[in-house]
Amino acid sequence: MNSVPVASGVCLGEEAWLELDEFALACGVEVQFVRTLVDEGLVQPPVEAPLWRFGGDELARVLRILRLQRDFEANLQSVAVMLDLLDEIDRLRAELRRAGLSG
Amino acid sequence: MEFKDYYKVLGVERTASEDEVKKAFRKLARKYHPDVNKAAGAATRMQELNEAYDVLRDPQKRAAYDQVGQGRHGGQEFHPPPGWDAGFEFSGGPQGAPDFGAHSDFFEALFGAARGARRAGPGTRSRGQDHHAKVVIPLEDAFHGATRTLTLHSPELDAGGHVALRERQLSVNIPKGIRAGQQIRLVGQGTPGLGGEPAGDLYLEVQFEPHARYRVDGRDLYLALPVAPWEAALGAVVPVRTPDGQLEMNVPAGSQTGRKLRLKGRGIPGGAPGDLYVMLEVVLPPAASEKAKALYRQMAQELAFDPRHDVEVAR
Q1: ipTM of the assembly?
Q2: Which residues of chain A are at the B interface, by a Cβ-Cβ cutoff of 8 Å?
Q3: pTM for this prediction
């Protein structure tokens, strides 16, 4: 039987963070694009000093921004509105789950 | 591999104009976008739509696709004829974040080489790309930690410069205390680097399999627990099964359906462990036997109970 290689991972956002350049690489974008997202308030680094550091939630958020931009040819302002609405839907769904009303 | 009918995927005629292709894609994207549509198949459907649109929006790729596609139907066994792409120039692969298995092997066989060639020019030195994949695990893994074996598909160049999807397996340690939506970073498990540069990383987004008993919100769990009317009315100690094992819970006297009891720290473990919320659900015994009916009648006669005392009811 072939042995399957074992990889140990670290969980982003609790035990490990990504610095700006690593974070941009992980998102597949330029560093400048990450700066723009932070400036426009679409992404907020959870650690700001002494250096920006990003976790898994921010990674998932940028990937979502890229999908929305690409699939709807949307500009950042439209994406920002979509994100706000999607966040609101997530919040309401969580509310329903807490009330035991849906999966 | 199977031949993919991209026209059918987008629901357009072979003669559709660029504009019609775009309109059809946008309409379907709004419907199936995984960020909007939470249905299980939405992500897969969106990948198919993206792949079809990648090809049909680009006049060069579309012309090439039409040539190999003459007289073929979706689902048919297909092998690209040798040298089929001679005379076509593709301006690179699809844009956006790279994903493992984001394209079918059909797509990679036809258009992957263009992307590979661009990336692997002679003398190139570059760090390998980072990859992203999703891993769906049972909730119990977050309680105990686990090692899961994943099957990943990544496009790779063979000796002849052709791109094929390579399947590989990887065992990954799932740390105890993980939440849905968290990202596990696996250093060096992305695309190998070129010219001695390091390989990219692999990021795994964690999702939980739907659970028959628990609903999950961050690290908190919600559980519906049926109780008998006398347990709710008089109070009782009842057994509760948690992912961590069974424990005893105190149901206070005078409880009703919908009462939420918190078992502190019994949710997903971690630095700040989650809580387990138990929602009581009073279940009535069926009045199936004479004995049960008599007991209900006795309650009706002897208890001064009007469940609608604060509701105006027409008499």
Answers
A1: 0.81
A2: 4-14, 16, 18, 25-28, 55-57, 59-60, 63-64, 66-68, 70-72, 82, 86, 94, 97-98, 100, 103
A3: 0.73
